[in-house]
Request: fold
Amino acid sequence: MKEILLLKYGEIVLKGANRRFFEDTLAKELRYRAACFGNFSVRYAQSTLYIEPLNDFADLEGMLEAARRLFGVAGVVRAAVAEKNMESILAVAKEYLAPTLAGKKTFKVEAKRSDKLFPLSSPEISRETGGALLSVCPHLRVDVHSPEVTVRVEVRDNAAYVHAGQLKGAGGLPVGAGGKALLLLSGGIDSPVAGWMMAKRGVRLEALYFESMPYTSEQAREKVLDLAALVARWSGSMQVNVISLTHIQEELVKHCDEEYFTLLLRRFMMKLATRTAALRGCEALITGESLGQVASQTMQAINVTNAATDLAVFRPCIGMDKEEIVQIARMIDTFETSILPYEDCCTVFTPKHPKTRPELTKVLEQEARLDVDKLLDEAFETLETVYIRAKF
Ligand code: ATP
Ligand code: MG
Reply:
């Protein structure tokens, strides 16, 4: 029996004139992923992507899991293919679904035909299929209100498809349809989640990590690269830029008042991120900030940080509490890596009493004690770029 995956579009169906662009972006990304799992044909018709294995070596299960991490897809179906006649549909339904239904008590059948020339109506298809399944699974009972399994028969253009229900897809919009942005990626819980949330809105990600060797370790960098690889399973392969802040931090400690360290450092980060974005063709920045979470994330502190860049800064976690962020981190599989105990450059030289209501003028006075442009130039010289190939 032949199996196929059907991916149902999410929000793309709402797109008017641009729809073709979104569909093409999605199909391109899907073809790229499919190539990692063997030989598949990928085509789209009627708001559905069809993924068909072309030989026995194609890994349909792996492809299914990868498809569930593809933004732009609302639902994923693994179905058996039948010819467009009732004899074939019933034979396939019995053979394909009997194992699934074996341990279940109740079911119902829902049929849909997009081919209106098919001789039977949808209720008729449902009825006949239900009868056939009862003949091979006599322990079953039909329950139209809350069945354990909903069997679906879809009669489409080229074939009919039989399956036991749709799995939830990742939702959102296809990556690349929303431009490219630079994710400030630390080793924490929040920034991988922030990146994932923006990728979900169709944004292609590139990352920037600030390290501070020898105050931060090689393991801290490895951890961030691992996090980038985990996010890439959803968002696609990405470049991770690494910049050293060591010298800037040492100068801050030498010349500025302790209570301003974090704020000043964050402004340097924004300026370096803005330069990196220009170099790498990113049109916005993304951070994992959440209002009130720490001293540098009060409204006043965020204003001071924001004033260091002209780019839009997306902060998708801003209104979320830690519990909600952790929930997503677990779901996308970054949590366990995020909680590994390596230091971040923000946690070395942290002030005991950071300013929580900073005034920009005061911060600028502190900054004037430093040769900011020279420090930025030097730090930018340390930029390294690492390519993280997604393992879908
Ligand atoms: P996270 O859990 O993402 O590390 P956080 O709660 O620890 O966030 P901060 O350390 O104040 O908060 O950092 C706020 C945001 O600044 C981070 O979400 C991230 O986007 C960025 N950031 C912090 N440290 C770094 C770093 N070393 N490299 C790149 N970006 C960073
Ligand atoms: Mg952090």
